[in-house]
Amino acid sequence: MQLGLSESARFSSAEEARFRIGYPNSKPRKSRIIALDALSLEALRALTGQTSNDAHFLRYIAPKGASDTLHMLPVDAVLEDMDGNRVNLVDEITDADVVIMVTTAGVAAEAAELIGNACFVCNKLATGLVLNSAEISTEALARSLTTMRPFAGMLVISNGDEYVGEMLSALRV
């Protein structure tokens, strides 16, 4: 070890390079990105062609009861992909590595409870992304955050649509 080198310089030396893994991650992530409202759906539509991994862009449609006679006990939900095909929430998140709920600040995000609980049952970590803008009041933003907070392991506020792509990239979507 050379004296006087910073930690960054030392770890980028040829001596330390022999410890690096020389190939990319062999297991791509399976991501499910779910829009909870119309404005967040538009933000996701702009990103559908930019991802290369097994990312499914979906939108929340409605809760799905335990049976036809038990509508008051929603344990699943109906989602729709960008092509208009309807799918079940539980089927989508069962083999997912990443589940991201996207909503617009000021919009009630009651679907977050259902999706968050389904993720909990399937042992998945749900992430929440709240799209904020200057037109949204602080109270409206706080309402959205309060609704989503109990059901998202990580909750992020975005101040622009361009941040959504950066956030998904950081999560390796």
* Overall SS class: alpha/beta
- Taking all residues together, what is the mean pLDDT? 82
What is the percent of helical residues?
25-40%
Estimate what percentage of residues fall within beta strands: 25-35%
Biggest β-sheet: strands ordered side by side in the sheet: 4-3-2-1-5-6-7
Q: Count the DSSP helices.
A: 7
Number of domains: 1
| Shape-level CATH architecture | 3-Layer(aba) Sandwich
Span between N and C termini? 38 Å
Approximate shape: globular
- Radius of gyration, in Å, reads 20 Å
Low-pLDDT segments: none
Sequence of secondary-structure elements: HHEHEEEHEHEHEH
Question: What does this protein structure show overall?
Answer:
By secondary structure, the chain is an alpha/beta fold. The protein has one domain (28-170): Rossmann fold (3-Layer(aba) Sandwich), CATH 3.40.50. It is 31% helix and 27% strand. The chain has seven helices and seven strands. It has helices at 7-11, 14-17, 38-45, 89-94, 111-121, 138-148, 162-170, and strands at residues 30-35, 54-65, 74-81, 86-88, 98-104, 126-131, 154-158. Strands 4-3-2-1-5-6-7 form a seven-stranded mixed β-sheet, sandwiched between helices. α6 links the parallel β6 (126-131) and β7. The two termini are 38 Å apart. The model has no long low-confidence stretch (mean pLDDT 82).
